[in-house]
Automatic annotation (TrEMBL):
Family: Belongs to the transferase hexapeptide repeat family.
InterPro entries xref list: AcTrfase_PglD-like (IPR020019), PglD_N (IPR041561), Trans_hexapeptide_repeat (IPR050179), Trimer_LpxA-like_sf (IPR011004)
Organism from which the protein derives: Aromatoleum toluolicum
Official protein name in the record: Acetyltransferase
Pfam families in alphabetical order: PglD_N (PF17836)
Signal peptide range: none
Length: 219
């Protein structure tokens, strides 16, 4: 009997971290791990961690009732390109959430997210498409997060913060809370260095680091 096919797109570090979560999610639904593969455009092996790595073409050619893919690649611009490729080919976005993720009230999470173990999303939060929240990250109340935003492990995003599309927040960064009606805003494509303490708005495209976080001047 034909089955749906599920892919973790990207067979490198990010993808190998997501695969076990994807497997557990399917297990709970009673779906066999045979329906779960990696997809990679530049595979370094035919198999990794017990799953075949297929080219995107072979993923499309495998017989299946429906196809789902989670984009497990940290680079948000790549995710955006792959999302439109998948949409054109009828491959549906797949959201993966670890079983111990905590989600409170009125969390609106866009398609294709990856929520790693120990992630917490508290109340009244809006998050766009293809969000990555890596291990132990949290998003506090009343935050608005755009599309293709990436949190490395241990990001502390406090309340009333706006994070625009394609921003990247490095490991262990702390973002100070904003105020109702006057959120702290991290602009589109901004990069927050690991361990940064962000106390004020970050303009679009700017990289900041340090405590308090300041724009990085390359020497
Ligand atoms: N990749 C891909 N298609 C693309 C871009 C990247 O299949 O258009 C794959 C690439 O071959 C690699 C993975 O995605 O296996 C990205 O791995 P990398 O170690 O650069 O990043 P991470 O896993 O940390 O996101």
């Amino acid at each position: 009997m034909m089955q749906p096919l599920f892919g973790v797109y990207g067979a490198s570090g990010c993808g190998r971290g997501v695969m076990p979560l994807a497997r557990m999610q399917l297990q709970k639904l009673g779906i066999s791990a045979d329906s779960l593969v990696f997809i990679d455009d530049n595979p370094e092996a035919v198999n990794v961690n017990g799953h075949p790595i297929l080219s995107y073409r072979s993923f499309l050619e495998r017989k299946a009732t429906e196809r789902y893919a989670v984009l497990a690649i940290a680079n948000s611009k790549v995710r955006e390109q792959l999302a439109s490729r998948c949409a054109n080919d009828g491959v549906r976005p797949w959201t993966i959430a670890a079983s111990n993720v905590v989600t409170m009230d009125d969390v609106n999470l866009g398609a294709g997210a990856i929520l790693s173990p120990f992630v917490t999303l508290t109340s009244n939060i809006h998050i766009g498409q293809h969000f990555h929240a890596n291990l132990y990250s949290y998003v506090e109340h009343d935050c608005v997060i755009g599309d293709y935003v990436t949190f490395a492990p241990g990001v502390k995003c406090n309340g009333n913060v706006v994070i625009e599309d394609h921003a990247y927040i490095g490991a262990g960064a702390v973002i100070r809370q904003g105020r109702p009606g006057r959120p702290l805003v991290i602009g589109c494509g901004a990069v927050i260095g690991m361990g940064a303490v962000v106390t004020r708005d970050v303009p679009p495209g700017v990289t900041v680091a340090g405590n308090p976080a300041k724009p990085l001047v390359r020497g």
